[in-house]
Amino acid sequence: MRRYLSGIIAVLAVMVLTSSSLQAKKIRWRLAMSWPTSLTPISSPAIKLAKYMKEMSDGKFIIKVEGAEKTKAALGVFDMVKGGSYQMGHTTSYFYIGKDPSLVWFTTVPWGMTKDEQYAWFYYGNGMKYMKKVYAKYGMLAFPGGNTGVQMGGWFRKEIKSVDDLKGLKMRIPGFAGKVMAKLGVSVVNIPGGELYTSLDRGTIDALEWVGPGMDIKMGFYKVAPYYYTGWHEPGAEALFYVNKKAFEKLPQKYKTMLVTGMKAVAADMFMENFADSVTAWQKMIKEMPNIKVKTFPISVLKAMKKATDEVLNEYAAKDPTFKEIMNDYMSYQKKARVWTMMSEYYYLKASQEVQNVK
Ligand code: CA
To answer: What percent of the chain has pLDDT over 90?
Structure first.
């Protein structure tokens, strides 16, 4: 009997130990987003990643996603992941160019690469190598987290007929595009997404850029600023996942693989979701919002924007060798990639427009 009892005790002890070691293996991470949870499709990648990680790990890898409505720090994601209070973030690199201008190359630059070109540079050129090198300085890893495709040039209260019309304009336009606009006399402000409509409505700003029709229409900007311009400044803006490097290194290899593969899948999915939303939104605009005036900036304004872009980039390159190194690599890749984009996408679309009468 005693032997029988001690056998049971031994079995129980093993069970307790096993369950506590399983318990210890359960990973609980927090992820901070720069956007409110409701702001799809840009909030979709983090939310979907958390769902897939939970399912793929049989509930052992839990990522709690917190939107800007919870963290109250839309532009604080960099510091929160760097400091380790959050193991992950979903944000965009160019929000933090005040800390390090080289970060701009991992979102988008005015007159830069389209999403196809940029993804090729990230994954099959030197993009990821540079991203790893730059973010290592801050104890973080960064991964592409969803692309918007070509963004629209923004919403303006009045028509822009010349460079003079830009002077004194108050505009929300982040990244290097903001620096370019500043050179052209615009007073540039950076406001988190959740506060944009109010700022425009109250006249705190006269113009803003956000993303494209899918995301812009539901923000209601057209009600107060009806001039909607085609893009030049964010040809392929990439959101990024941040991962605290120490936290990542502690993961078992299979979770590392799941996470990296999962991030790539949800990033691709964001482009699809945003594209589909924009298709729907553009039809809605045509049919239900006749007050929206779609415009392209005059060629003189576009040329001034290009000249100012070159000046801004060269000024930073002159001060910062890392910036210069990445810029040279990015630009030489863009030059080669654009030849192929023109041969494939551009000539197909041009031919299609001629024979299918696309408007
Ligand atoms: Ca934008």
So the answer is: 88
